[in-house]
Design a protein that fits this description.
The complex is a heterodimer of chains A (about 110) and B (about 120).
Chain A lengths: L2 E3 L4 E5 L4 E3 L2 E3 L4 E8 L5 E7 L5 E3 L5 E5 L4 E6 L8 E9 L7 E2 L3 E6 L1
Parallel strand pairs in A: 2-12
Antiparallel strand pairs in A: 1-4, 3-9, 5-6, 5-10, 7-8, 8-9, 10-11, 10-12
Chain B lengths: L4 E3 L2 E4 L5 E6 L6 E7 L6 E7 L2 E5 L6 E5 L4 E6 L8 E8 L12 E2 L3 E5 L1
Parallel strand pairs in B: 2-11
Antiparallel strand pairs in B: 1-3, 3-8, 4-5, 4-9, 5-6, 7-8, 9-10, 9-11
Classes of the chains: A mainly beta (about 110), B mainly beta (about 120).
Amino acid sequence: AQSVTQLDSQVPVFEEAPVELRCNYSSSVSVYLFWYVQYPNQGLQLLLKYLSGSTLVKGINGFEAEFNKSQTSFHLRKPSVHISDTAEYFCAVTFTGGGNKLTFGTGTQLKVEL
Amino acid sequence: ETGVTQSPTHLIKTRGQQVTLRCSSQSGHNTVSWYQQALGQGPQFIFQYYREEENGRGNFPPRFSGLQFPNYSSELNVNALELDDSALYLCASSLTIAAASSTDTQYFGPGTRLTVL
């Protein structure tokens, strides 16, 4: 079975500071990795996904993530955050041949302060 | 291109009742998945429909059932509601090449907030 761990439930950060949201996964088979963002009272929006190839993936809104197979991690980063980045961020996985059935972590609340 | 829509936005039911939630997928999307998101948790996979047939189910009892229709709409039905069924229910649609495909982007609707009293 696959599982996803998001180590930080909340991350406060000042505007224009860099941020890293951590994600680790566990799986006995190859996985595909996703980061979604959820703004208050809205559904989830895909930020980026890693399928294969370059381990550094760039997404929307200036976010990027790096796949590290040896560390089984897929941390999300942004060099300079904005107030509008305040939201809940979810890391998720699917596995090869398993269909589009996302397994999500418990989420990280990013709070950007002035 | 219209996005994924869900109705109703909010719903209040009492324990033991039945509920039907509706989802309209993006045009052309052949796959719809349903997720339950309890307060403070990540979404949990309920089941998926691919070309109108069930294509996988999560750890949810049979009183959770669904349908997918040819017109890109789908339903989630929950019978004998329990207090723990209170959650945000999300549907997500995708254009899937094959039933076992794992890489397609899923587009989520805004959800239906179900409260069971």
